[in-house]
Amino acid sequence: MNMSIARAGRPATRTLSVAAAAVATVALLAACSGGSDDAASAASDESSASESATTSDEVQVIDQTNLLLQTAQETLEARGLVVQVADASGQGRAIEDPTQWVVVTQEPLNGTVESGSDVTLTVRMTTDPVG
User: pLDDT tens for residues 14-25?
Assistant: First the structure.
């Protein structure tokens, strides 16, 4: 077999293969860019809207019992909740330093509530007897 003929045939074959691949790629891209993008975009927009409505209106409450009041307040307020504090002793002592108080009970303890809801923390001083 003459090598010059074999070499001459290869470029033509490669050119046809590359051209066929290019045509197939263009056809595939054209098919993919049809109306399906609009449907996918609409579904994505709808999904985003429902997620933002859920996340902006509802907040997960986390149990803060046995933590320092300062930590509990910061955590709950960062979630968009309003913290109310009550003295567990019933004496109505002023809470001047939240790092000196521990959360004894919480209402609600956990679950999902609307953003801006009240969470009541009943606290005792760290120096108060436990029990």
Answer: 444 555 565 565
Residue 27 CA to residue 118 CA, distance in Å, equals 59
Task: Please give the full DSSP string across 41-88, using - where no structure is assigned.
Answer: HHHHHHHHHHHHHHHHHEEEE---TTSBHHHHHHHHHHTTPEEEEEET
**Do 65 and 31 touch, CB atoms closer than 8 A?**
no
The model's pTM is 0.57
Structure tokens at 68: 């320092």
**69 Cβ contact partners less than 8 Å away, ≥ 6 residues apart:** 85, 95, 98, 99, 101, 102, 103, 121, 123
For the chain, the helix, strand and coil percentages under 3-state DSSP, each to the nearest 5: 50, 25, 25
